[in-house]
Every structure is written in C-alpha cells, then in structure tokens.
Specification:
Structural class: mainly alpha
Largest sheet: none
Strand content: under 5%
Radius of gyration: 25 Å
Oligomer: single chain
Length: 399
C-alpha cells in the first residue's frame, strides 16, 4: 500500500520527476475546408440532371420531331456525367480530410437518409448513358458503363436500404414530429434499380441470365414498394398532426412522388422486356396487364399528392422559403412521373397520357433550370449552404 509523506525526501526515497507540461499544439488547419459540408445530398443534383435527359428521350409520341430536343438531351446527359465525377471527387475528399464530419453525417437523422442519393445518382447516370449517351460513345461502351453503374448503384442502394433504417432504430433519436419525406430516400434506391435494370436484359445471354435479372428487378420492386408503404403513413401522419414542414424542408414533399412514379415506370419497363427474358410465356400477358392495372391508380395518387405539395410550396415561398439543395427535390421525383406516364401512354395508346407526360416534362425542365442555375450561383458566390437543413439538432443514442 502506498503512503503519502509530508517530510522532505531523502537520498534513499524515490523521487518523482515532474516533466513540464508542453503547451497544447495549435490545431492544424484542415485541408480543403470547402469540402467539409459537402454532404451526400449533393448527389441529388446529379439525379435531377440525369432524369431530364432520360425523360426527354423517352417521351411518347414523336419526341425526335421536336427541334433540338435530342441534342439537348445529349448535352444534359454529358453534364450529368461530369457532375457525377465532380461530386464523387468532392465526397471522396470529404471522407479523406473531414472524417469526423462524415461520421457525424451518419449519426444525423436529417442527413443519413441522403446516402440513398449516391446509389440513385449512379443508376440515373448509367440509365441515361444507355438511353442517350450511346449516340456519343457508341452502344458497346454505353452498355459497359451502364452495367458497371447499375451493378454498383444497386449494391450501394441495398446497403443504404438496410443500414440507414438500422441506424435510425439503434443510433438516431427521432420523434413522430421528425418524420419527413427524406426518410424515403434509402428505400427508393432499389426501385430505381428495378426501373433501369430491364434495359440491360437484351444484352445478357438468353435463358437463365435474362430471366434472373427480370425476376431480380421484380424483387427490388417489391422490397422498395413495401418499405415505402410502411413509411408513407408516418409522413402523412406527421403533416396532419404537426402541421407543415419547416420552410427550408418544404420541397422535400415532392420526394413522395419518387416511389410512385418510379414504381409505375418499373412495372412498365419490366413488362416491355418480359418477352425478351421469358419468350412466349403465359406470364407475359399477365405482366402487361399488371403494368396498367398498377400504374394507372398509382400515378393517379401521385397527381393527388402533387396538388397539396404544390400548394404548400407556394405557401412556403410566400413566407420566405430560402433556396437550398432541397430544391432538387422538384426534379428527380417529377422526372419519374414523366417516365411513368410515358410508359402508360405507350401501353394504352391514350392521348391524354401523352399530354400528361409532356406537361410533367415541362414542369421538370423548368424546375431543373431553376435549381441548376441557383446551385451554380450559390457555389460560385459561396452563399450556398452545403449541409441539408435539419429541423432540429441531430442526436444519437449512446447505447
């Protein structure tokens, strides 16, 4: 047992040497400080740009007859590819030089769901490459690019669809009042895979390969749809019980259109490629019927949701809604409704659906032009807040 002595030490008593405390080293300045707040929400700008090219190229009727439309789609596709490379580089720099902030994003229930945007950005650019970019780089290269981006995006999307809800349960502290359409982002990513995967079916070997991809896309459709159905009541209940979203988060209401329009697109694309995968199978006609019987009511609900969403955005604008990256929610979800309506127009031959697709495409291009212009101006001026707006400070469970 050690004892404390108050008498002076003698030569036989061990003495403790005291080392002068060095002054605290000044914190080293972080490299690339501009990257510190480049969060995963920036991938939304890539998604929103790529969908303009894809939607424009797949409009029903005779889109090729519109002067300059095809060239504009090719230009927008090239822009989306460049944006994807830039955002990937910025996000890599963020993780390398600002790991503490990157980890904080994962523990922030307002930011973590945006990791689903990475998967959708990869998928959207890959799909646009096969649809539009093939005219520039050739079919073989376009298929290779889409195959790589589709595979990577699907795997990332499945990880996000599992990891983000897991974090919300065991790490994040959320209340009923915190429910937001942003929660849909991780679970919608597999639906994007289900919608874009069928385009690769004709390039696979006949037989098991094609049928496997077709059924895998249906599985992705199902898991995303059921996950969405579990979240929509929470989102609508939050709006009814707690009122409108914060002003900066109001554009996120458009995110609800994403799973609705994308699922309508998915069933249409799957039914169209079913004969290639299954041949003269009895299931093919059933899948055609399912695409219409599912797509029409779901697209109807999307239009129903669009009306109050627009009304609440107008209300927020009148109250001074600031520009933020959430404005990109006006693009990709609307684009999925364009492709969904276009698919139904081709399946049914109804002129009304052709006009609906065209009207939604006009809305999409207008929203994209505003969001892209304001984003570029915000980046150049440095006034753009990079982090997604959070309705409350992020907290995490310690258990």
């Amino acid at each position: 047992m050690a004892t404390l002595a108050t008498t002076p030490t003698t030569p036989t008593t061990p003495t403790a040497s005291v080392t002068p405390t060095a002054p605290h080293a000044a914190p080293q300045p972080r490299r690339f400080p501009a990257l510190r707040h480049v969060g995963p929400n920036w991938y939304a700008s890539v998604m929103g740009t790529a969908i303009v090219a894809s939607a424009g190229a797949t409009l029903p009727g005779d889109p090729a007859g519109v002067p300059g439309l095809r060239a504009a789609c090719v230009t927008v596709w090239a822009l989306s590819a460049v944006m994807l490379l830039l955002v990937l580089a910025a996000r890599a720099g963020h993780w390398i030089h600002h790991r503490d902030q990157a980890r904080a994003h994962l523990l922030d229930p307002a930011v973590a769901p945006f990791y689903g945007c990475l998967a959708m950005a990869l998928l959207a650019v890959g799909g646009a490459t096969l649809t539009v970019g093939r005219e520039v780089i050739g079919e073989r290269a376009a298929v290779a690019v889409d195959a790589v981006l589709f595979t990577t995006g699907t795997l990332v999307g499945l990880v996000a669809a599992v990891a983000v809800p897991y974090l919300m349960v065991v790490r994040h502290r959320v209340r009923a009042a915190d429910a937001s359409p942003v929660w849909l982002l991780p679970v919608v990513a597999p639906m994007v895979s289900a919608a874009l995967g069928p385009a690769l079916i004709p390039y696979l070997p006949a037989g098991q390969w094609r049928e496997s991809l077709l059924l895998a896309c249906y599985a992705l459709f199902g898991l995303s749809l059921l996950a969405t159905l579990t979240l929509l009541p929470l989102i609508f209940g939050r709006l009814v019980l707690h009122g409108p979203l914060p002003l900066a988060l109001t554009p996120a209401l458009f995110l609800v259109l994403g799973p609705l329009g994308q699922s309508t697109t998915a069933v249409g694309h799957l039914a169209r490629e079913a004969p290639t995968a299954l041949g003269a199978d009895a299931h093919v006609s059933a899948l055609d019927a399912f695409a219409v019987l599912y797509g029409v009511p779901v697209l109807g609900f999307a239009l129903l949701w669009l009306a109050p969403a627009v009304a609440m955005v107008v209300r927020a604008v009148r109250r001074g809604m600031p520009f933020s990256m959430t404005w990109w929610a006006f693009t990709f979800p609307v684009g999925t409704c364009v492709t969904g309506a276009a698919g139904l127009a081709r399946a049914t031959g109804l002129t009304a659906l052709v006009w609906l697709a065209l009207a939604l495409f006009v809305l999409l291009t207008a929203a994209w032009a505003v969001a892209w212009t304001r984003t570029v101006h915000g980046v150049i001026s440095g006034a753009l807040p990079a982090a997604p707006p959070a309705p409350r400070p992020a907290t995490a469970r310690t258990t």
